[in-house]
Every structure is written in C-alpha cells, then in structure tokens.
Amino acid sequence: MAALPDLLKWSVQNSEASRQNAETPIASPPSAAMAALFGFNVGSDAERMAENLLIIKNAVGDIDLDTRIQAFEDFRLMVENLDNANNLQNIQQYKDGPRGLWTPLLEQLDSEDTEIRSLAASCCHAAVQNDIKVQEKFLTVGGIPALVRLATTDPSKDVRKRAIRALNSAAQNYQAALDDIIAHLPDTHKPKEKIDAADADSLLSWRTGLESQLL
Fold it and tell me: What is the C-alpha to C-alpha distance for residues 64 and 25, in angstroms, rounded to an integer?
C-alpha cells in the first residue's frame, strides 16, 4: 500500500503533461511493484474506475482540484455503461483493498467542494438510471438519505438540482426506492398522496413539484 501515493503522483503528473504537450514522453513508473498495482496501460474499465476514484478522493493529498474534476468526469462517463454500473460493488478500491466503489463515491457527496458534490450526485444519476439491479444496490448502500440531504439542504442550486435528478432516476419503476425517498424527506416536502413509481406521469409530477419547492 505504501506504493499507492507514488503511483498516483506518477499517473497524475504524466496525464497532465500529456494534456499540455502531446509530444511529451511518458516517464517510466516508479517501480515494477507500483506498475503491478494497477498496470501501466490501465486496460479494463474496472481498473480505470478504481484509479479515478482514488484520484477523486485525493488519496495522495496534493492533487489539484482540476485533476480531481477530470477524473470524476471520466468516472461518470464509465458508469453510464450499464455493465460498469452493475459492477461498482465488485471492484476493488486498490490491489488487496476492500471491494466496492459505492461507499467511496457516496463519501464525495459530503465533499467541502461544491463541484465535487455536484459531480458525485451526477454520477449517482448516471449509474442508477432506471436499472433495477443498480437501483436495488443503491438503496442497500444508503445512497438515498445522502441525496435527500443534498436535495433539501445544499447551499448550491446546481447540487440540489442534480441530487433531485438522481433521486428521480433511483425511483423510476422501483417503489421501494421511492418510498425510502419520501420517508427521508422533511414533512414540508412530502407528497400529499401516494405516488406509484411505475406511473411516469405521477413520478414526473412529483419531481416537478419537488423542484419548484427546492429550486
């Protein structure tokens, strides 16, 4: 595990160099052991997602915000793929580390940086978009209370908007998630009538009403 910071520094520095100058040669990695941690040419989406999330978490401690945001954008694009979204809970965070990327992703909903919170909500939206298996996992890992908190209390309108969109995606055709959302909403924002998650018009009306209250 001691190799991780050096590997991430190498990855970030060379990514930045390549963006600034396409002719810049890529430096050799710090060691074979570090290369083995993720591999030089990160081939699989799972490896790329894990590495991006480590950068997002600022595991090294000196990664600039722009680099973290770029890693988050890359991560979001990958979780739009249904297979990647379904695989989130099976991916190891780093070699020999704990499995599951949902927990470190949800932790970013509490970031001090507004753009990081916004991107975290957007990633949740992209991952759960009306797929029952991902919706079920999102419910069990506790994603809904965190999004409800953002939707109702975050000082940023953009963060609140993205959180509402993510909640709407989590609830589409999945009554258990919708019921959990409503259970965590403050009384002032609870619907007056029961909503059917399979009724698109009813769900749209609920989302529109929530947006009018919170945005």
Answer: 22
Contact present, 152 and 214 (Cβ < 8 Å)? yes
Long-range contacts of 88-93 (CB under 8 A, 24+ apart): 88/49, 88/127, 88/134, 88/137, 89/137, 89/141, 90/46, 91/46, 91/49, 91/50, 92/50, 93/50, 93/53, 93/54
Interatomic CA distance for residues 75 and 79, integer angstroms: 6
Whole-model pTM: value is 0.80
Mean pLDDT along residues 105-124:
96
Most confident of 18-27, 93-102, 109-118: 109-118
Rounded (5°) CA angle 35-38-42: 100
What are the two backbone dihedrals, phi and then psi, of residue 71, each rounded to the nearest 5 degrees? Answer: -65, -35
- Once rounded to an integer, what is the mean pLDDT over residues 147-170? 97
Percent of the chain with pLDDT over 70: 79
∠ CA 99-105-107, nearest 5°, is 110
Q: Which domains does the chain have, with CATH numbers?
A: 116-215 (1.25.10.10)
Looking at residue 59, its pLDDT comes to: 61
The whole-angstrom separation of Cα 15 and Cα 72 is 14
